[in-house]
């Protein structure tokens, strides 16, 4: 497992990244959303109550940036 993620979160992230390979909008089925107020290329997907996966769209493909706690996510998104 990666970076202290619980097994269920790791499994969800694995399913999500696999789905994104064939369908760039698959994040919507996982409750994800584009962060239009910050940067439209960023996509946030909940992995559980306290974890998020952050992706970036690059040349039409969705790339994982990092899976992190909600606290890390907030710091990452709102940093200046």
Explain this structure to me?
The chain has 80 residues and is an alpha+beta fold. 30% of the residues lie in helices and 35% in strands. It is built from two helices and four strands; from the N terminus they run αββββα. The chain has helices at residues 7-22, 70-77; strands at 33-35, 39-46, 51-58, 61-69. Strands 1-2-3-4 form a four-stranded antiparallel beta sheet. A hairpin with a 4-residue loop joins strand 2 and strand 3. The protein starts with 6 loop residues before the first helix and ends with a helix.
* SSE series: HEEEEH
| Tally of helical runs | 2
Q: What portion of residues is helical?
A: 25-40%
Describe the largest sheet: 4 strands, antiparallel
> Average pLDDT value?
90
Secondary structure layout plus pairing:
Elements: H1 7-22, E1 33-35, E2 39-46, E3 51-58, E4 61-69, H2 70-77
Antiparallel strand pairs: 1-2, 2-3, 3-4
Short description:
The chain has 80 residues and is an alpha+beta fold.
Q: What are the key terms here?
A:
single chain; about 80 residues; alpha+beta; 4-stranded antiparallel beta sheet; 2 helices; about 30% helix
């Amino acid at each position: 497992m990666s970076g202290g993620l619980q097994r269920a979160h790791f499994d969800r992230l694995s399913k999500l990244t696999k789905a994104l390979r064939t369908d760039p909008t698959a994040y919507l089925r996982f409750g994800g959303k584009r962060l239009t107020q910050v940067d439209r290329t960023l996509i946030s997907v909940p992995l559980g109550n306290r974890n998020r996966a952050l992706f970036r769209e690059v040349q039409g493909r969705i790339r994982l940036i990092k899976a992190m706690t909600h606290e890390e996510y907030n710091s990452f998104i709102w940093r200046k």
